[in-house]
Write a structure and sequence with these properties.
With 402 residues, the chain is α+β, with helices and mostly antiparallel strands. It contains 16 helices and eleven strands. Strands 1, 2, 3, 4, 5, 6, 7, 8, 9, 10 and 11 form an eleven-stranded antiparallel β-sheet that branches. A hairpin with a 7-residue loop joins strand 6 and strand 7. About 13% of the residues have low confidence.
Length: 402
């Protein structure tokens, strides 16, 4: 048996590394499966090696003849293993669903390799919706969902065109699923006839397929980044739209920002989760947000306002607090600022007297206000959530800027 695995390992290694003409005609997923097989053989060889030379094996060698007489037949052992594996399928459906709902993504994917029945259960959307919600809901919003629908629709139509395309696409998705829950110990479960199931593994419009696309980093989704460009001073207490991809190895993100006029596209990597959020509005980065809170704004209210350097730039969202008019002493019992047509916007991370410290907009007819010198102020969002406000507070700079 050991000689067989060694021979198989050598054969696969030569087949992968040797540039034969036949290799060029094979699809890419075949070579990926060869690599998986080679790694699986390597792990099996390692397991056999340790079992042959472990102390437990040496301690039991003296009792080998006795155990040989008492040992059951191979068929009986296999039968026992099958009966043990099938016990979980004997559970009532509700009990089995409760077990599956408690599993982590890696455990759920591992369970899917036990048999075809569990595979069908483990890829149900309602099981993966929880994992999507717990991990990805802070950064994946409606804009990302629409982007995924546009991204997956052509692949789904293309895959449905011919059976060959279906097999190639689903096999590729299966490999991506395996790679999301590395290392090799993930393969220790019994895989149920991988070749025959390739046409039905991952539906391209399923939740698990979306989860795999996000985890693999191959799907770029729209979201927003706080304090862009690693906290560059020109972007402190701001939040900008970007397209993000996930790096599972570092648990960070890569961002590609929209172009700023004639300037090249800006990139940023190693972005932590706490600097990201799903976009709270459906307004594109270059469009003016329609304010619906102007009549409700009072001194002390927290807000976000669109701002851009010039007409060619996309908007970013900037944090501030509604202030008092110069004619008001700030006494809450005598303040009538909320009745005035002018709203004072304060950005208190700038020093008093700075031209960026205060701005004003009209409560009745505010659209976009500004010029090429001070930039353009756009739509305003009132912040009602304490979570949103505390998020901005955590990003407050350590020193005041001019």
């Amino acid at each position: 048996m050991l000689l067989f695995f060694i021979s198989l390992s050598c054969f696969l290694l030569l087949l992968i590394t040797n540039p034969l003409p036949l290799k060029k005609t094979l699809p890419s997923w075949v070579h990926e499966m060869m690599v998986v097989c080679l790694l699986l053989v390597q792990e099996l060889l390692s397991s056999l090696w340790h079992s042959l030379f472990s102390s437990q094996f040496l301690d039991c060698s003296s009792q080998m003849s006795t155990e040989w007489k008492c040992s059951p037949k191979v068929g009986e052992v296999v039968g026992v293993e099958i009966r043990e594996a099938n016990r979980i399928l004997d559970l009532p459906d509700l009990a089995l669903e409760c077990i599956l709902e408690k599993l982590s993504p890696a455990a759920l994917a591992n369970m899917a390799c036990v048999c075809r029945s569990l595979r069908d259960r483990c890829r149900c959307d309602h099981l993966w919706e929880r994992h999507m919600r717990e991990k990805w809901s802070p950064v994946v919003g409606e804009a990302a969902r629409r982007e995924w629908e546009r991204y997956s629709a052509p692949r789904k139509d293309s895959a449905a065109a011919t059976d060959g395309d279906v097999e190639k696409s689903t096999a590729k998705d299966w490999m991506e699923l395996l790679s999301c829950f590395w290392p090799l110990s993930w393969f220790s479960s019994k895989v149920d006839d991988t070749r025959s199931k390739s046409k039905s593994d991952l539906q391209l419009d399923s939740i698990i397929s979306w989860y795999v696309a996000l985890e693999s980093g191959k799907f770029l989704f729209p979201a927003q980044v706080y304090n862009r460009e690693n906290g560059h001073t020109g972007f402190l207490l701001s939040c900008y739209d970007a397209h993000l991809s996930y790096d599972r190895k570092t648990n960070t993100f890569y961002a590609r920002y929209p172009p700023h006029g004639q300037k090249p596209v800006k990139m940023e990597d190693r972005i932590q989760w706490d600097r990201l959020r799903a976009s709270p509005v459906n307004t594109p980065a270059h469009d003016l947000y329609v304010s619906d809170c102007l009549n409700d704004l009072c001194p002390g209210d927290h807000f976000e306002i669109q701002w851009r350097r010039n007409k060619e730039f996309p908007y970013g969202w900037w944090y501030g607090v509604v202030g008092h008019l110069e004619s008001c002493d700030g006494n809450e019992h005598h303040c009538h600022c909320h009745e005035n047509d002018t709203i004072i916007l304060e950005f208190n991370h700038y020093t008093p007297g700075s031209r960026w410290r205060r701005a004003s907009v009209s409560r009745k007819d505010h659209q976009e206000k500004g010029d090429e010198t001070d930039g353009f102020y756009g739509g305003i969002r009132k912040l009602h959530s304490e979570e949103e406000i505390s998020k901005w507070r955590r990003l407050w700079p350590t020193e005041v800027f001019e």
